[in-house]
Predict the structure.
Amino acid sequence: MSFATLLQAVVSGLLLGGIYALVAMSLALVFGVMRVLNFAHGDLLMAGMYGIVVLNQAFGINPYAAIVLVAPVLALIGIAVYFVLIRRVLGAGPLMQAQVTLGLSFAIQSTALLVFGADLLNVRTSLDGAAFRVAGVVIGTPELIGFLISIVVCAALTWFILSTEFGRRLRAVAQDPTMAILCGIPVRSVQMMVFVGCTALLAVPAGCLMAFSQLTPTAGIQYSLLSLMVVVLGGLGDLRGAFVGGLLIGIVEAVTSALFNNPAAPGIIYLVFGLALLARPRGLFGRGSEA
Amino acid sequence: MPPLGLSQGASPVNTDTNAKQNQGKTMRLRHCLYAGLALAASTLLVHETQAQEAIRVPMMTPLTGSIAVLGQDSKKAAEVAQETINAAGGIGGRPLQLEIVDTQGRPEIARREMERLTREGRAPVVLACDISAGTSGAAQYAESAQVPLLNGSAVSADILARGYKWYFSHQMSSDDEAATAFAYMKTATGTKPLADRRIALLYEDSPRGAGTGERLRKLMDANGVKVVSETTYNRADRNLLPVMRKVQDSTPELVVWIGYTEDVVAGMKAARQLDFKPYVLGIGGGMGDPRLPELVDPAIIEQLHVANVDYFNPDIKRAAAFREAYLKKFGAEPSSYAGTCYAAIFTLKAALESALKASPDLTTTSMRDAFRKLDIPGDQTVTSFRSIRFDPANGRNLGAEDLVAAWVDGKRKVTVFPPSIAVGKPVMLP
Amino acid sequence: MNSLSRFTRSQTAAALVAMWLAIAAAAVFLDGYWIGIMVGLLGWILLAASWNMVGGLLGQVSFGHSAFFGLGAYTAVYLATAHGVSPWLGMLVGGLLAAGFSMIVGYLPFRRGLSPLVFSLLTLASSYVLLFAVSGIPALGGTNGLFPPAVGQSVWDMRFNSPVSYLLLAGALTTFALATIQILYSGRLGFYWRAIHDSEAAAGAIGINTMAVKLFTFAVSAFFAAMAGTFSAQHTGFIDPQSVFGVEITIYLLLFAVVGGAGSLLGPVLGPLVLVPAGEYLRTALASAGGSSAHHLIYGVALMLAILSFPGGLVSGLRRFGLTRGALSVPDLAPAAGSAPDVNRTKAADGRVILTASSVSKNFGGVFAVRDVSIEVRSGEILGIIGPNGAGKTTLFSLLAGSLKPTSGSITFDGREIAGLPPHEICRAGIGRTFQITRAFPTLTVAETVYAAALVGRSEADAAAIAGSVLSLTRLDQYRDMASADVTLAVQRRLEIARALATCPRLILLDEIMAGLTPREINDAIELIRSIRDLGVTVIFIEHHIRAVMALSDRIIVLDAGELIAEGVPSDVARNPRVVEAYLGSPAEEPASPPLDKVKAR
């Protein structure tokens, strides 16, 4: 396999990895602030993707514009999920959280199947198949736009957490909830707003993905697993780790599928993940919390 | 810059008032749960009344899971078939009732369902429109329990290799697909001989893709046809650009591509981004998906001169009535999955009629014998088959034959091969 | 009370009897379909019970048990098809392979004490690695899968025509697993499991080799899961990577275990018992009503409701019917007067040096928590350690007790180098400790806690006697059957001491045991420490209550900012200027005229 193709794989993987990074960051943020590992995170993303498709097919709205309309819907779903489920398992062990969110994942998946059927759905835009070449590497236009939007949103999220009042409260709750209560921060409301915000935030990767990707009811569980892996790899609660982890996993995914012509190839990602986790159990930057 | 990590936190505090509230909520939830259970239990009391004389045949198909589209389409076809058959008087005067069972494509569920259907339900025959994993699970049970199983969808030749006597594969096998693909290539090679053409193989690595892909490779090697690259990929791969580029690197003139709709759409868009425009010969339900022009710019399909080896195409004359009924009921063209399942149901009907003539009681043995005796001419089915005739040694359909349909203007499929049923001309390589 | 009698009185035995009665009834009265459901049910019970060993009892949640299930399935089928080996043997080989694989996967996480979530995801990754690896091996059928040989001639082939045979086989395998788990639980392993589950650090401190226990448990669990895999392969008649290594198995497994009640012995029996028929019924009932794809939705919703309503699982929900999580076997602990085999009395408090720390340092990324500390401790003495907060006192204890490794320096106990040894070995060498923040075993009663500590490395009879005498020495008799989580702070502290004492240490490390106690309780604590010394145990204690330190200590050492700044008899130390400065700060200099005065003076 030529070097150019390998480089192509790295670049393609990086572009998709940017979106993974955003999805993982929102999951890491939820974990950091409320210590809940949401196994239905990918299914919520999938719900957003269905929303984008519906808006496109019913009203012709392009996926990027539809982000703005889907975000409030996801926020509403986030509120419902928070009050019905998440709030009850705050502080419960990881086993119970896993079970409850897995139940949610089942429910979202089946609802999607019931409502939309098993057919593949996607969005047709004028950017289908558009690309340009840089130094022999082909960069898909919608993929690049998705990457750039994700990076910008990640940066904005980081700025928000570091520089705003709410961001400070958020960090306080993440670092020491008891102390935060004593300082007068309404911990429960912060947690709710973070969960709802992170769920609404999923509208962004949903739109970016639908600009070039396909959707079936089983997509949710794949993204759930992926974001979970990225978050743990990056270090639980470590946002920078989740970001870098997302980019890395995107690259490893693309490179292994390009390098190896064997059904065993996807196993390498998991092997790499396992070894990386053993080498750096507290995350890439060593700053993840002990769960 | 302050650290961005949100780590080193203790678990959130649960105050006393929260605990009391939670307890109340837990009790309410429990009541919801009990209510739900009571409701569920009450459905046990509800009986279904059905016509005593109906012939009930279970149909196993994956309605959920990663291949749910197969089940969905098969179910639609079953509804059309059932209506058509019953409107024409049913089978020996009795209405046909297909009972659809979800296997999720999983062998252990398929086996369990087979056991339930045959022991408790005493079904004399079972129809499976399932993927090879589910069909394998069902088939081995069918063989040990001695119940005839009619396979409507799975292409895998592995089951045939087992030499089962109670398994009847209406659907063609991957050997047939490979043979048709090769025969088509010989026709379509145009002015240059096939041995001089640069051909690449691209397929997804599940039994569906790999089964036919590997057989085609063997066939081509045996005939001295050059395979410039053989590339496999995982169906769930989200990023097919590097894979397509690998194929592009081998500069093929023709790419034989076996995949499902999802990966085929992703791959075609990637091919456009790479400015990669080989001729494409697809195999299977992916390239033949009637919804392809909705999912991908028709110009891309046109650019790639896509033709597809398939077991069904709505435009052939035989399928006209089915196509019309399906369009009327569902407002969409029937896919290959729907077509093949529909055809299998009619084969089932023929076997049932034959068995009923022999004796009014349907038993597993009478059904098996009926299947063995079948010899249905191809133009009485909606598929491209020459005939329906089962090999008693392993259940293979000896009359199975594929068709090749070419996409015209990227918008509709026209059957171009074999000449006996072709509606249009094959797409010649330049 | 030997193992057999314990077993016959256990919940598991009752459950097994019920199970065999049900099997017998089914074999006689039910038809093939229902027997098939029972077979599936038993298979899930087996798998859930195997998972529960690590995930529930031990508290190490595994997301990858399908790896072992698949190993069992593939090994048996491959050996049978490619080499004609009987699946019985294949089951054994598969089980051993799975046990070996589990030890590979578990070794590093257990050794390094990695977080349980990391362990969970590693196991998940391992099952995916196997899934894809097998897909890529043509000899194992690749993605096409493998068929076990067709129906066989003899029992040796493990392929039967009659569903009753499968039922009996499933019953036998499940009985074997459940009985083994119960027998292990009724012995010392039950105590070890509960201790590790409740507090791994404390478990190590009482001498339990946590890593060995975890690896062993994981291996046995993997063996049972592989058994389930082989059986399932033989029963289903076809396997492919997705069906035996797939994540669905893990998901359903977790469901059954949690709904049943993870961590209890009967949870893995109850969970499948309720959920498998329910799921089956849901699927078939909905199918006939035409809403086949809705069953997943209803299942998901019902699941969420069930888990939220019964967080402790069915076992806790059925507590009123007498169901418990599993009783530990604690023998009668009344101390026979004067016959406690008190190891300590034999070692005379002869004043020779038993513990030496030489230039011990502990460096955390550039910060020295303990710097170059050297101390000598004589047998039979009470040594007090004082110092301001953050002086490194608890770090020093952790170094002595083995929960931290010194960056440099050596520690010898009884002439033996112990620096860097794991906590359980240091405990066995004769050093016991308490923790600054009490780490009780919340689910154990007071008596069970003390007995467990005495049990490590001793016979049950000896342990019973030791526990009995320790309980009366620490005046915990009246709290025997109270759960450790329910007692008051003062009692908890005494329990910590009792637990450490029950390991028969020659040296005991007490970390701020008087913090938060009332003056009366402090006096009691002082008496207790004295009586511990009277047993012949050397005491080193960290304390902030100067009065207590002065009253108790034979000698005092003072730490400040990680360094030893003073050492000696209490009266000398109290007058040491460096000590005074460390606690109170340096005396203020003559105050310069306050700036305000200067301003006013103008």
User: Anything to note?
Assistant: The radius of gyration of chain C is 30 Å.
